[in-house]
Amino acid sequence: MVGMPILPSQRHLFDLPGHVAYLNCAYMGPLSNAVAEATHGGVDRKRHPWAVFPADFFSLADQARAAFATLLGAPATAEDIALVPAASYGMAVASANLTVRPGQTILVLAEEFPSTILTWRERARAGGAELVTVPRPADHDWTAAILAAIDDRTAVAALPAVHWIDGATIDLVRIGARLRQVGAALALDLTQSLGARPFPLAEVDPDFLVVAAYKWLLSPYSTGFLYVAPRHQNGRPLEHHWFGRAGAQDFSNLGYPDGFQRGARRFDVGEPANFALLPGVTAALEQILDWGVDRIAATAGAFTDAIATRADPLGLAAVPTQLRARHYLGLKAAGALPAGLAGLLTRQGVHISIRGGRTLRITPHVYNEWWEVDRLFSVLEPAFAAARP
Ligand SMILES: Cc1ncc(COP(=O)(O)O)c(C=O)c1O
Question: Measuring CA to CA, which residue among 351, 309, 311 is closest to residue 333?
Answer without folding.
Answer: 311
